Amino acid sequence: MERGTREQNIKRIIYLEDRINQCQRCPRLIKCMRKPSFGKGDLEPDVMMIFESENNITTDMDQVIAMRDMIKERFDTDRVYHSFLVRCQPKACTARESSSCIIEGKYLDKDYVCLLTNQVCDGIPIKASTTEIMNCLPFMLEEINILRPYYVILFGEIVSSYILKSCGVYDIHDGQRSYKYNGITLITTVDEMSFNAEAAASIGPA
Ligand code: SF4
Questions:
Q1: How many angstroms separate the Cα of 116 from the Cα of each of 18, 112, 121?
Q2: Of 93, 92, 97, 67, whose CA–CA distance to 82 is shortest?
Q3: What residues in the chain have per-residue pLDDT under 50?
Q4: Ligand 1 test: best mutation among 18, 86, 106, 142, most atoms within 8 Å of CB?
Q5: How many whole angstroms from 88 Cα to the centroid of ligand 1?
């Protein structure tokens, strides 16, 4: 598929986000979140960064901007976009686990106050299950195919493994490597917790 124009990409991304918004494939996840995580950045990107899901790093705009700036410098482009493999952040929550009541719909109101505790949600971000990752993976593959960036940076082992295998790459090596897929260069790197200037310096255009 050719790279779309910005206008085509905007329409396709809006259509994708509408479907993500309505998605109910993971009942455990949708109860305890207000809205799914969407991609952000340039809609004709040269480089796309993929994180596993929202966490303390990716919700901190200063840290996200710092990572994006390192990538911009390394790839000599301003056209950077970032997104998430799993759109609904899984959380561990003692209130939910110990509650016997079942409430229809979401547990969080618009201010992130939980209907079970009447307090702002203090759930702890945890990893998604294999099933949840598989449920959400098609959205990520569609997003890559809509935007068709020249480079896709895969942060961490989970993201690398699922995206590469979906692209037919099974011979996956440790560390930072590049793989070709349908005109796109997929680059594996450490997860966002460990990503720093040194890691950024060791990836880049071939
Ligand atoms: S994590 Fe993905 S697949 Fe699961 S409910 Fe959210 S949007 Fe749907």
A1: 28, 12, 10
A2: 67
A3: none
A4: 86
A5: 6
Contact 41, 6 (CB under 8 A): no
Ligand 1 neighbour 136 (Cβ under 6 A): yes
CA–centroid distance, 206 to ligand 1, in Å, is 34
pTM higher than 0.85: yes
**Residue minimizing CA distance to atom 3 of ligand 1:** 136
DSSP designation for 106: -
* Residue 87: count of CB within 10 angstroms of its CB: 27
pLDDT, tens only, 94-109: 877 777 666 777 888 8
Domains of the chain are 6-26+35-89+128-201 (3.40.470.10), 91-125 (no CATH)
Is the CB of 140 inside a 6 Å radius of any atom of ligand 1?
A: no
